[in-house]
Request: fold
Amino acid sequence: MAIRKVGVVGCGLMGSGIAQVCAAAGFATVVREVSPDVVEKGLKGIEKNLARLVEKGTLTEAQKGEIRGRLKGTTALEDFKDCDVVIEAITEQLPAKRELFAKLDSICGPAAIFASNTSSLTITEISTATKRPERFVGLHFFNPVPVMKLVEVVRTIATEPAVYDEMVDFGAKLGKTPVRAHDSTGFIVNRLLVPYLLDSIRALEEGVGSIEDIDNSMKLGCGHPMGPLTLLDFVGLDTTYYIANIMFEEFREKRFASPPLLKRMVLAGWNGRKAGRGFYDYSDPAKPKAMKF
Ligand code: CAA
Reply:
């Protein structure tokens, strides 16, 4: 099947990044949000990203125009009816995702392939809201989507092998390196990343080192682009807490258990960079200052 048109549901941080890479890879892309002002906000963000690439000389003004021309914003799911692939990047709530896919199932053609960008929910459970679990995969992208080179392509026990191979190939066409993963909660990246991030909070709680020293240790000692506490602020503490709880629920292993400090920070609304405060204070975003607890 030739993939020509891609639908992206959700134009937030992940959805807008996914829509951008789809359009940049040459696919006609329609991206849907719940209201016109949210669509507008998402598309403005993409335009800003593209303009930055022109400034840096990575894109020409003409290429930017072509990419923007391939992108269409909408609030109507009916605009997905002729999409060959639909990627969902809405809120990490199972009922919302199941409801969405049940609707899409009746709107889209029978050959369309569905994908969820979930980072922690079970693809099998989302796919059974449709009559096409054999044409259903996970496509898990990483933040910031235009920059991070990986996409996890997740298959369930029901995914048809030819559909799966096609989605691996699609991931490569988006300019990403696709890795194959089974539908095991957290897939590959979060299975390894989440215990590491939680352990950095436990190290802080136990007084092993300060916030800056824990971050510098992994940045300068191991060559990570960000220390774990900075990365927690970047991903969002609420998001990490949510993922950790789902993984703990699934595996019942201590390594996935949320440390008490994480829970308290989420309860206080200190969710990281987007909240202006997490392990660092972002009053001056250019110069984050480590918090004192
Ligand atoms: N959108 C688009 N481009 C961006 C960007 C964004 N939000 N943020 C940075 N960039 C671009 C910059 O323009 C720059 O491009 P050039 O090299 O072409 O100039 C490049 O990325 C590097 O940016 P900076 O020089 O400003 O800063 P940096 O070198 O510190 O890189 C970073 C920023 C790419 C975010 C880097 O710090 C990094 O890789 N951090 C780790 C990110 C990570 O681990 N992400 C995965 C999180 S887990 C997840 O997403 C999944 C989940 O399920 C939880």
In short: The radius of gyration is 20 Å. The mean pLDDT is 97. DSSP finds eleven helices and ten strands in the chain.
